Amino acid sequence: MSQPNPSQSRTSSIASILMRTQGFFGTQLWVWPLVAALLLVAMGAWPRQKMESVAKQQVADMLQMVLNANIEALRSWSATMKTDAENIAAGSGTDSGT
Question: Which residues of 7-71 form beta strands (DSSP E)?
Fold first, then answer.
């Protein structure tokens, strides 16, 4: 009494599925254009998704760079305005005494 080999039973089941599939595709010719269309859609959707994600990342990086530049410009402007206000305040105190 020998135990059935699981790899043989798996191979035989795969073989039977392939035989049934081959028979189905051989008699139903309308399936081939459908399979080809599905493959083309899958082959086109994957690169499109990859390119879209790369483009989104590039836009996000550019927007972050612009934001950082604007923050630095506002800090510089704020420091300049503070210095100008201090100079005007210091100057107006001396001008009132004349």
Answer: none
